[in-house]
Specification:
Layout lengths: L9 H8 L4 E7 L5 H14 L4 E6 L9 E3 L5 E3 L1 E3 L2 H7 L6 E4 L8 H11 L3 E7 L11 H7 L2 E5 L1 E2 L6 E2 L1 E4 L15 E4 L15
Parallel strand pairs: 1-7, 1-8, 2-5, 2-6, 6-7
Antiparallel strand pairs: 3-4, 9-10, 11-12
Helix pairs in contact: 3-4
The structure holds zinc ion.
The site of zinc ion has 8 residues, from loops.
Length: 204
Amino acid sequence: MIEGYFDDTEERRKQRQNGTGWIEVIVGSMFSGKSEELIRRLNRARIARQKVQVFKPKIDARYSREEIASHSGQTHTSLPVTTAAELLAEIEHDTQVVGIDEGQFFDMELVEAVNRLAAEGKRVIVAGLDQDYTGRPFEPMPQLLCVAEFITKTHAICVKCGSTANYSQRTVESDARVEVGAADKYEARCRKCFVPHADAPTAG
Ligand SMILES: [Zn+2]
């Protein structure tokens, strides 16, 4: 985790001064603190009295329909939407900061949508899983990483060996790419301990 890194870099100050928008992407495995980092940035924007709108895909009903939440329990009010087009339709013209959680559950049109918002001068922050349970890039996150001005990769701790974890290990049998769940269906693993299919959960 990068503490305090993102709040006022030289580049961002310059961009704000000339009215340019930009895209920030926060990616990592499950339990790596992505949503927590997103919520932290959104709360700071609120404190700075900026107008913030937050979205999440309707598929993610884990915690609350109206809030985004981190595994550690922080929350932020959000609007559930089904598609990138629906998200764009909900944007208000005077919004300065747009937050999007669980970006991997959106369609590929999200890439065009965030580019458009940044071109209109908005700061867009997208958090999401960079890889699925087999370790394959999880679209549209790779494409978002390409168009983003700023990228943060968050890491978890491998529950098997304690190393830096970069993978979401599925611990229940399922071939579905999207299997919404948290500690009941996944655990964080490092490159050495990860297997690209379901594996028994680590004991203890
Ligand atoms: Zn490990």
